[in-house]
Amino acid sequence: MVETILSLMKVPGASDVIDFVGGRVKLIGFTVPKRFPLTGRQLISVKDLAGKILVGAIVRGDHVVIPRGQDTIKIDDLVYLVVKNDEIDTALKLFDIKEESLRRVIIVGAGQTGSALATALVCWLV
């Protein structure tokens, strides 16, 4: 649970972050906002995607689309990207996801998860 929370904190705007290959590859899910630079463009037309980022799935309403080059991203789609860990900054910029550094964190509850998260944050932020 703590690793999931930390992963979400490391990728601003993400609704899901799942690690693969020992954390070297991430599956990042985010909902497409109204002002999104790639809305309506065919994926094949986005040259910066090639070799760096894979759009693994698009969830549109009740349907899951495994995208191909001619597919487009629409407002309110839930898009899942497969990204190498060292390409996350590129993905965030390309998808116009603002990088926001954490300044304050509030942990509600001092149970096992809250305590473990506090310990992990101290190690992560130092």
Description:
This protein has 126 residues and is an alpha+beta fold. It has a single domain (11-100), classed as Regulator of K+ conductance, C-terminal domain (Alpha-Beta Plaits, 2-Layer Sandwich). 24% of the residues lie in helices and 24% in strands. It has helices spanning 2-10, 88-94, 112-125, and strands spanning 16-20, 25-31, 53-60, 63-65, 78-84. A five-stranded antiparallel sheet has the order 1-2-5-3-4. Helix 1 crosses helix 3 (112-125). It is elongated and about 50 Å long. The mean pLDDT is 82.
Feature tags:
24% strand, alpha+beta, 5 strands, 126 residues, elongated, 5-stranded antiparallel β-sheet, 3 helices, single chain, Alpha-Beta Plaits
User: Do you know the CATH architecture?
Assistant: 2-Layer Sandwich
Provide the CATH superfamily.
Answer: Regulator of K+ conductance, C-terminal domain
Please list the strands of the largest sheet in the order they lie side by side: 1-2-5-3-4
Rg over alpha carbons = 16 Å
Tally of separate domains:
1
CATH topology: Alpha-Beta Plaits
In percent, how much strand structure appears in the residues?
15-25%
Q: Give me the secondary-structure category.
A: alpha+beta
Succession of helices and strands: HEEEEEHH
Number of helical elements: 3
Ranges where pLDDT stays below 50 over 5 or more residues in a row are none
Provide mean pLDDT, rounded: 82
Cα end-to-end separation:
21 Å
Note the overall shape.
elongated
Structural topology:
Elements lengths: L1 H9 L5 E5 L4 E7 L21 E8 L2 E3 L12 E7 L3 H7 L17 H14 L1
Antiparallel strand pairs: 1-2, 2-5, 3-4, 3-5
Helix pairs in contact: 1-3
